[in-house]
Design a protein that fits this description.
With about 180 residues, the chain is mainly α. It has a domain of about 60 residues. Helix content is about 80%, strand content about 0%. It contains nine helices and no strands. α2 runs antiparallel to α3, α3 runs antiparallel to α4 and α3 runs parallel beside α5.
Length: about 180
């Protein structure tokens, strides 16, 4: 059910996505298995973040970080910290977002994982742009586009292109340096 909440969001059903995420979390808590709960804390929180309910998304990510740390689940902790960095970027804390996403993404990649990397990178690009670091922003956009092509993780491709357009509009000379 956790994955379904993200799918429902992407298909344009935000209310159903939130309801589904709440049900998935309730079920995971009842099951009481740490791996199931970690999965249910991460995936459904995307719907909350996309809807702008950052406080709920942050609470879920905080719980995930604590549980992953308690269980020694380095993959989940790196995933949660990458996600938390994205929440910082979405709520206007660009400097802390850059620091958190870059360090967490490095740890996440060390596990061999690639899932959500294009979204993490596009959000990192947005944070760099807010700091006026456009070369770094473009590097992240390029890396995210390469990741989309390589992994075929296309669910965030439109958002990636929208972010690239926003960065182009923010850049002082409004031209991308190659």
């Amino acid at each position: 059910m956790s994955g379904r909440s993200l799918a429902l969001w992407l298909l344009g059903h935000p209310d159903a996505a939130i309801a589904d995420s709440e049900r998935a979390l309730k079920d995971a808590r009842e099951i009481g298995q740490a791996g199931t709960l970690m999965y249910a804390l991460l995936l459904p929180s995307f719907a909350h973040a996309f809807r702008g309910n950052h406080a709920t998304a942050r609470a879920l990510s905080d719980e995930l970080v604590a549980l992953a740390d308690e269980k020694g689940a380095w993959f989940w902790e790196a995933q949660a910290r990458s996600y938390r960095g994205c929440l910082l970027a979405l709520t206007g804390d660009a400097a802390d977002a850059v620091h958190m996403i870059t360090s967490a993404l490095s740890a996440y990649r060390s596990t061999g994982a690639t899932l959500f990397t294009p979204w993490y990178l596009s959000t990192l690009a947005r944070a760099y742009a807010k700091l006026g670091q456009f070369d770094d922003a473009w590097r992240c956009i390029d890396e995210a586009m390469t990741a989309v092509e390589t992994t075929k993780e296309t669910w965030c491709e439109a958002e990636l292109n929208r972010t690239a357009g926003e960065i182009a509009l923010m850049a002082p000379d409004r031209r991308r340096k190659s």
